[in-house]
Amino acid sequence: MSRVHVSLIQSDYGLKLHGNFEAVIMQGAQLWHWFRDNSRNDFGPWVRGTRITSDQDTVAAPGCLIQSDYLTGFHGNFEVVVPLRQPSGKTELWHFYRDNNDPHLPWIRGTRVTGDHDNVAGAACLIQSDYRTGFHGNFEVVVPLRQPSGKTELWHFYRDNNDPRQPWIRGIRVTGDHDNVAGAACLIQSDFGTGAHGNFEVVVPLQLGNGTTELRHFYRDNSNPRQPWIRGTRVTGDHDNVAGAACLIQSDFGTGAHGNFEVVVPLQLGNGTTELRHFYHDNSNVRLPWTKAQLITQSCTGAGSLIQSRFGSAGHGNFEVIVDERRDSVVHYWHPSFRLAEWWIRTDCFTTLEPFPLLANRAQKIAQLTGEFDREGWNGTGTPNFACNRTESRFGIIGTDLGSSFTHLGRTYFLFGDTWRVGHGTPNDDLDSIAFSMDKKVDHGIRLTFLPKPPLVPGIPQGGFNVPLDGVSWNGDMYVFFSTDARNAGIYALMGRSIVARSSNGLNFTLLYEVSRYKFINVSTSIVEAQDHGLPGNGPQVVVFGSGRYRSSDVYLAVKPAVKLTESGGFLFYAGGTDRSQWSTDEEAAVPLIGVGSVGELSVRWNPLLGAWICLHNADWPADRASVGGVVMHWAEHPWGPWSAGSVAFSVNDGLGKFMHLPNVDHTQEGFGIDRSAELGGMYGPYQIPHYAQPANGGVQIYFTMSAWNPYQVMLMALEVPVPLE
After folding, report:
1. Residues with Cβ within 8 Å of residue 107, at least 6 apart in sequence
2. CA distance 531 to 1
3. Which of 75, 305, 351, 671 is 20–30 Å from 331 (CA)?
4. 319: helix, coil or strand?
5. Which residues fall within 8 angstroms of residue 333, CB to CB, at 6 or more apart?
6. What is the pLDDT of residues 420-454, one digit of tens each?
7. How far apart are CA 550 and CA 519, in angstroms?
8. Distance between CA 428 and CA 418 in Å, rounded?
9. Verdict on whether the full-model pTM lies above 0.90
10. What residues have CB less than 8 Å from 342, skipping those under 6 apart?
11. For residue 516, what are the β-bridge partners?
12. Are 509 and 355 contacting, i.e. CB atoms less than 8 angstroms apart?
């Protein structure tokens, strides 16, 4: 069940220009208030406030929150409607409120909204309208009611707030005789109208005869409140299957006299996963169809709640969404108003994230591969131990990160990211580096030889956040995938696109083509035989696992014949199916494999000793000690899955205070002329080196590189994977 519906507002609490965000979240059988203090540099943490419902209440569906014009001090009251299941098995809709004259006051149970014989079938939506007979606008509610026939209808209720002691009144049914409501609806009052009152607008999911669900718009012309509701246009498209409740607002974007309608709605995807998708309607012409806009997340497990906030620029407020995602989390996204084509930006998981289970025997550090000194265990006096490659004195490499690898002409090549070199000042140019090794075993480290110059690709930016991602060897040349055109949206870094470049020696590269600006911006790639893995086509295939938004993506799959590696395009994208996989030439059709939602750097390789594909990725904010994230391992027999739920192969707390810096505990920090003693270390970029895997203790020991952030160096890690895989 979804934990949110129309559950997010921006209130008048706050110390600066931006009011707090307030949300009501269903947790178990109770409804809780959460808030974010937006006066803290506009990006404070989400905090759980007080419980709204009581010990005796059993919440049956998410709540809806508004701030009304009732007040006894400076702040309008919070008002909530929430369905409560009764001991009889029937569900009623109840009103709760909080007197915001003192935010420490408890929530108060108000009156029941629905009638004695009504049975509520889902979440309700509450607004305060401009209808009034006194000082306060009426409360208006739409709520789905289950009928004795088994059909569900959408009904309108209202309360005349001239006297709050008056009962709620059942209004007119919203949906038609033959409509079967498939979920909660969302109600707004728009600026459309032919009289003194703006129209009521509703979006509601309706189940069709073929078993699919569409999202339909209804409205009421409020020039005469006794008029029936009118069935408007369908919001979703011919091939969309709605998977839950939608949320509707009217924004200040538009090309005419009326702001656009904006909707977020969960849609079922081809392999059973769910995405949250944004639609909008250009209200300059009511006869125009709705437009399907960007996806928000494809790790969705429930509904999303949408507002247009007072954050923003260029005359428009940003869009803000909270959404149910996997692993029992509610996540906040926002969309910048200054660039309509920009991604939705993932920010905080602000409810308790269900942690991945910890592997009993997690990865251990074998050696520090880069840098001059390995400071683990150093007491801060004298000279620390040397790192295994002493890259500063031997190659002029002070520090670097990443380290994805591939074999080429008998060597193992390692691709390192933004690299600090001797003689470079601040800011650093952040050009990358490549090293190779000819070692056959790596029990005590890897001997690296760095190439004498950065891997420069003419025609693309290669500064900070523009890095080599992975590579393959084919017909005597190496083909390296790079990210480029990185940018920022507020405080959030975004990778721009991925490209492929070719080189014979790792020194001189030729740009071939762009790969993706969408779901394959960060990639992990290898070449395998199609028939060995059930892939489309014949012969060697380039297998590309991708993620899109920087550290806030799912994992996707594409394949391409290796013989076509020099040519642009030609990818087939996994579009669903397990027993019989489906493939599309359209990247939009690619469906998530794992659905974690916070993937960035990833490594997916076939491991013949395990007889499985192994995926390693860093999950959620790995530099935050309070995070439940870490290096997560999934496995699957086929590249498209089904993939295992995932286990933590290395936790942030496995390394902090040891070889990752924990302030005031160790002396591992490394600043290259900048004091980083207060900067927490983290881990990211777990890149497998599959050909070094070996049997160990009845299982298989695999090796991977991992970056520590502080110190800004790359470690060699070893993990014993038990057999059989579970």
Report:
1. 33, 50, 51, 52, 53, 78, 80, 96, 97, 98
2. 41
3. 75
4. strand
5. 296, 297, 320, 321, 322, 323, 344, 345, 346, 347
6. 999 887 788 999 999 999 999 998 999 999 999 99
7. 10
8. 9
9. yes
10. 335, 336, 489, 494
11. 498
12. no
